[in-house]
Each structure stands twice: as structure tokens, then as C-alpha cells.
């Protein structure tokens, strides 16, 4: 019953994490309060959007098009839907059902092969799963593609980023070769402080852009797909085909707009806090972060001790200090384990002393284990 | 500039309709208040659903499975998504990408050919667009199909229904022939009073069932797909492929549940009111309803006068009586025009005298026109 034990242990860690007074990651629990806060100042007489039309959706789409520096933007219920559609449009235009993306691309590992099953598009996996796509990977590509998808930051490897200059070279290469460049910007807002660029400057390198509102922004759900008007108009046809053109999307639009306004100006703070937070982890024995110095509000934490030993240790730290670090752990092939963390509103509210105390105890317990 | 004039006239009618004090159709405007009312008694600490899991979504899915008499139910953001997926599953199981449905089926006329573009499923159109599908249409079918979709009531022809006995015969025929029967029950709740059957009794004739929560129920958006557990589990795989497996669907689930509880017991009242309402129309010159006697809360109103003449006439009635009948008209090929109406909460609040006054004036003005 190994599986059952593992599950039970996982539930214990989650339970202990939930009970902590101070959580260092995120914006707090995803409760109905998130919606209620977003709607607290909205007049009850405000008219719903209506199958993608109306002032409420138009205003937000225009605001996002401006922010991203694109001609037009369309609100989607999800990024899964928006991105598959973007790739389909670029493939149709070129008449070639081949694209390229990173081996850990969301479309490859989190969407039950929707791109392949619904569109029969063949993805070529560029780079290897532990590093970013480089210009050289593109140059070495033996066959033509309709579209290259680049994810900024590359979430599954801790949220890493290419140099901006490398990105510019990739963009130029694609334009010269007639390859469309699509941005998976699920966490684009979170990397603006590192790049020291506006969203529009980054997006100008791409033909189409997807951004999400429930990662760093912390809204309920929702996505924007932006590009030229002919592109976004075509995406609306597909949005209806997918069943994403709901009679009312306003619960997501209103909350996306509310939390965008509330948090877009905090991305610099999250980034600075993430660097300090990673510093705490890297000061401990048997712990390292990926990347070592974060380039956004997120990073991965790697432990060179097995999950079975780390779980009770973490629970001990939570119970002794009231500080929670993670509710889950993932076993790694190398005998260690890891989890992903990200900075949101909660970090700043935890007293510095509490953080120091928690990491001191964590380091002490880890030292004991590794002897 | 004929088109522009037509549009302006349409806007005038809509504007005049909006200004009326008494609207005879629907549940009132689709404003943010619809959401705020649904959430007014929900505790802010209630946890969101999480990618299709959690108590909030489980409870509603179980409640709907019970109500529909099916083993299992899955909440979808839209019926478009749910129904395409249902047909895809039945086609995959039989290894035959052919289905049959009515020429006015939602999948055929309102979804930008999503079924064909995303699944390459070929629909055979049964019956003709002005009448219901009968057992004979099925018997006359020259080739095998994986699935027959039946819509109850058939919305685009005024919300007509087959006899229940005919439905039973169609169901038996399908079972004998190895054809899956899918119910487009967008307005299923609305026909229970006419059939004098429980939803479960009707659904027992079908292998899979879709119901909607923003028609008669009047919620924000959302759908349920129900069937055997192996079927619904497979639908969840596709729900993720479509990008419908949102991190949070609770804005739709909470409102669907709230308005279901509030209105499911009123369907009998809506049905009785619809019959009286249709009677008012049928008592006027140059007006007839389809069906003549409604079998649900909805029907179509047909005028044998052209749209251009009817619009100013209706505006006059609205302004003189304060009673609003419709905000749009659709030209018909025969020189007349029509609109769709449905009974919701508003009808009962309009004083009987006002209704009589409005229809008396409507009849008088129509008599003058037709001379």
C-alpha cells in the first residue's frame, strides 16, 4: 500500500500547511471572498457582456490590447483554449500543421494532447527539458514550422528567462523565415521588473500573445489573446467553436480587471521579495533554488533529501514556528524532492523574525538528517 | 443604406422596449445583480472548486445526476462544449464519425461548425426544418449512425415537442440498432410540466443528457452533461482538451445552483402563463403563435405584416401602455416577421389589466394596418 501511504503523508503535509498562521507564498486561499471582493464596488445594474459583446468586455479587451501594445485583444475563459486556437490559426495561414515549443510546454504536458486530438497539429520539441530554447535550437531545426511558441518565464524549469537580446534574435530569425512567434505569457506580468521593459516592448517581438489573470494577478480565471485585428477576429470564430463564447464571461472579466489594477504595480515588489525568499532557502543545507536567483515572483525549491524524510521535517517546522512553506512535495528521480513557490501578497505580511526563525529551524533539522 | 436603416429601426425598438415599465417575457435584465443575488448568502470562506474537483462542484454535480436520474454528471462552462464532446465520445466508441440531428440543431446553425472543424464528424439532417424528427425519419435513414441527438423542446420551431410515446419508440429503436441517443435538454426543465414526467423518467430514454442553467433557470451561464460514469469520466478528458476545465468554475456553479433551487418549482407556473400569453397573441388580427398552444415556457410569435410596418406599431403600443413585448423582430421569407418569447419571473408581476390593455391596442393597430 505504498501509494496509499504516500497519499496520506501528502494530506498530512497539506493539512499542517493549511493550519499555519503565516504562509510565505501566494495571495491567500482561493475562496469565494476573491470574487466578493472584486464585485464589492461594482454597481448591480452593470450590464453583462453578451456573447463577447458589450461595454464590459470591450473596455477590458481594449485596456489589455493597449497594455500589451497590440492592435486587438480577446478575452477567453482559459489559456488552454486561447493558445490552441492561436497555433491553429498560424498553421492554417501557412498551410503547415507543424509548430515547435519547449518539451515542458503547457500544451505538451497539461492539456491531454488537445492540440493533437482537436487540430492534428504536430509539435516539434525544441531544446531539452532542463534548459531554455536558444536561437541555435531554431537554426538547427531540419524542417519548416508555422509557429514557434516561447513561454516567458519557462515555468516547469523554475521560471527561467532568456536574455532579452537572445529573444530579439529569435524574433528576427522567425520573421526572416516566415515563422510566426507566439508568446505563452501566462506569467508575463511577473517578468517585467527583471527585463526592465514594458509589456508592449516584449510583446512587439511576438505575433500573438496570451496572458493569464489567475497567476501573479490572482483573479478567479481568464485569459487574454492579443495580436492584429485579423488574427483576433479569427480567434473569435474558434472561441465559439470551442464553446468559449459564453453568454456571460463577466465574473472572470470583472475579477481580472480588479486584481490587475490591484497587483500589476506590485510585480517589482514580488520580484525583490522572491530574491530574498530564495536567499533564505539557499542558505540552508541540502537546499537549492532553481533559478538560484529568481527572475520573477516564482522559483522551484530542490531538496537533496527524500520526500519521506522531508515531509515530517517540514511539518515539524510548521508546527514549531507557525510558518508554512508548501502544502506538497514532488519526488525527483535523483532521490531528492522539490516544490514550486511564488510570491504574492502574503509574503510582506509575515514578520521578518518569523521568517528567520523558520529557516533557522529548517536548516538545523536538515543538517541533522544529512549528518 | 438599407442595412443601416434597418439597424437604426432595430435599435429604436430595443430602446423603446427597454424603457417599458412592464416586460412580459424573461426574468429581467442580465446585470451583475444576478451574480450578486446568487452570492448574497454564500460564506466568503467557501473554498473554490479546483480544476473540476472539490466539494462545491461535486455537490452540484451529484445533485444534478440525481435529478436527471443518471449515474454521474459533469459541470461544463457551456453546452456547446458539452454536446460536441458527447457526440465525439459516442462516435469514437462506435468507430463511426456520423451522427444525426434536426436541421435547426444548435450544433448545425449556432456553433460555426465546431463539430465538423474540431472533430470531422458528419451530421445527417433528419426531418425538415419546419417539423420534428419522427420515428419514420429514423427508419428511412439509409446509413448507420453513432448517435442521434434530439432537442426537447425543438427551440427553432417555437419549442415543439414529440408525444412522449413517440419518444419512447425512438429510444427503443435506437437501442435495438446500437445507436446512442443524446438529449439536447437546453430547455428540459421547462417541458417537465407538459410531459407530466420527472426529468429522470425522460432522461432514462437517453444515453447522455445536456441541460443548461441560463435559459428557464436564469443563471449566469453553465451546463451539465450527464450519463454513465465511464461516459462522464471520458468527457472530463475532453473538457480539459477544450480548455473548459477551469481552475475555478464556481461563479457559474453557485449561480446555477441558486437559480435552480429558486425556479425549478416555478416551471409549471411558467407553462400555464405561457398558454395564457399565447392566447393573448392569438386573439389579435394577423398574429399567430408557434406552437398555437405552448408546451413549455417558450413560443414564437408570427405576424403576417412586414417588419417595417410592425416596428413603429409596437413602439406605439409600448409608449402608450408601458408594456413591452419584444426588443427585436426577424423578417420572414413570407413577408411577415417573428420573434421568440419565453415566460420567466416578470410575467406574474404585470397587472392583468395592463396586459389586456396592451393586447387590445395591439389588435386595434394591426386591424388598421391590414385594413
UniProtKB/TrEMBL annotation, chains A, B:
Domain Aromatic amino acid beta-eliminating lyase/threonine aldolase: 40-288
Single Gene Ontology BP annotation: L-threonine catabolic process
Source organism superkingdom: Bacteria
Listed InterPro entries: ArAA_b-elim_lyase/Thr_aldolase, PyrdxlP-dep_Trfase, PyrdxlP-dep_Trfase_major, PyrdxlP-dep_Trfase_small
Keywords on record: Aminotransferase, Pyridoxal phosphate, Transferase
DNA damage among keywords: no
Pfam families according to UniProt: Beta_elim_lyase
GO CC aspect terms: cytosol
Cofactor(s) required, per the database record: pyridoxal 5'-phosphate
Molecular function, one GO term: transaminase activity
Protein family per UniProt: Belongs to the threonine aldolase family.
The protein's name: Aminotransferase class I/II-fold pyridoxal phosphate-dependent enzyme
Species annotation: Sporolactobacillus shoreae
Amino acid at each position: 500500500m505504498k501509494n496509499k501511504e504516500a497519499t496520506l503523508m501528502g494530506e498530512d503535509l497539506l493539512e499542517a500547511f493549511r493550519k499555519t498562521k503565516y504562509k510565505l507564498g501566494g495571495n491567500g486561499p482561493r475562496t469565494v471572498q476573491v470574487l466578493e471582493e472584486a464585485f464589492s464596488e461594482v454597481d448591480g445594474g452593470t450590464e453583462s457582456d453578451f456573447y463577447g459583446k458589450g461595454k464590459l468586455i470591450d473596455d477590458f479587451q481594449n485596456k489589455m490590447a493597449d497594455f500589451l501594445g497590440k492592435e486587438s485583444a480577446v478575452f477567453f475563459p482559459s489559456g488552454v483554449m486561447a493558445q490552441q486556437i492561436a497555433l491553429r490559426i498560424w498553421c492554417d495561414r501557412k498551410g503547415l500543421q507543424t509548430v515547435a515549443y519547449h518539451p515542458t510546454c503547457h500544451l505538451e504536458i497539461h492539456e491531454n494532447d488537445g492540440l493533437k486530438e482537436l487540430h492534428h497539429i504536430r509539435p516539434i520539441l525544441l531544446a531539452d527539458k532542463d534548459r531554455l530554447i536558444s536561437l541555435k535550437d531554431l537554426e538547427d531545426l531540419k524542417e519548416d514550422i508555422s509557429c514557434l511558441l516561447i513561454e516567458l518565464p519557462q515555468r516547469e524549469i523554475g521560471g527561467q528567462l532568456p536574455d532579452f537580446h537572445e529573444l530579439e534574435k529569435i524574433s528576427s530569425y522567425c520573421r526572416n523565415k516566415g515563422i510566426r512567434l507566439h508568446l505563452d505569457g501566462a506569467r508575463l506580468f511577473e517578468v517585467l521588473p527583471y527585463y526592465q521593459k514594458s509589456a508592449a516592448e516584449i510583446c512587439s517581438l511576438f505575433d500573438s500573445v496570451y496572458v493569464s489573470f489567475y497567476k501573479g494577478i490572482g483573479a478567479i480565471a481568464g485569459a487574454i489573446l492579443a495580436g492584429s485585428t485579423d488574427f483576433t477576429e479569427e480567434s473569435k470564430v474558434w472561441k465559439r467553436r470551442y464553446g468559449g463564447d459564453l453568454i456571460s464571461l463577466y465574473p472572470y472579466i470583472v475579477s481580472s480587471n480588479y486584481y490587475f489594477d490591484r497587483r500589476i504595480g506590485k510585480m517589482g515588489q514580488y520580484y525583490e521579495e522572491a530574491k530574498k525568499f530564495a536567499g533564505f532557502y539557499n542558505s540552508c543545507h541540502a537546499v537549492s533554488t532553481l533559478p538560484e536567483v529568481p527572475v520573477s515572483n516564482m522559483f522551484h525549491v530542490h531538496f537533496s533529501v527524500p520526500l519521506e524524510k522531508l515531509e515530517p521535517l517540514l511539518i515539524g517546522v510548521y508546527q514549531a514556528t507557525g510558518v508554512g512553506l508548501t502544502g506538497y512535495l514532488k519526488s525527483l528521480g535523483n532521490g531528492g524532492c522539490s516544490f514550486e513557490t511564488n510570491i504574492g501578497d502574503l509574503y510582506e505580511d509575515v514578520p521578518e523574525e518569523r521568517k528567520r526563525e523558520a529557516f533557522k529551524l529548517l536548516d538545523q533539522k536538515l543538517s541533522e538528517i544529512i549528518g
